[in-house]
């Protein structure tokens, strides 16, 4: 919702330099399909996100190399 409706940016970090991608990957695996499916849906949204057009003409994408503290 925030990525699309509110122009969110999954590359933004918190005080520990964690991104939305960090949070999705940190969660423990659940035995419940619905929880796993929601997690997978969130991951897909993050990976498909496209942001602003950069100076070089490329579109901003999620930073897969982002490192937390």
UniProtKB/TrEMBL annotation:
Full protein name: Uncharacterized protein
Native organism: Octopus bimaculoides
């Amino acid at each position: 919702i925030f990525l699309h409706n509110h122009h969110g940016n999954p590359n933004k970090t918190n005080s520990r330099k964690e991104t939305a991608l960090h949070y999705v990957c940190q969660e423990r695996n659940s035995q419940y399909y619905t929880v796993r499916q929601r997690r997978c849906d969130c991951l897909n949204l993050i990976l498909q996100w496209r942001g602003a057009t950069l100076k070089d003409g490329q579109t901003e994408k999620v930073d897969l190399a982002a490192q937390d503290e």
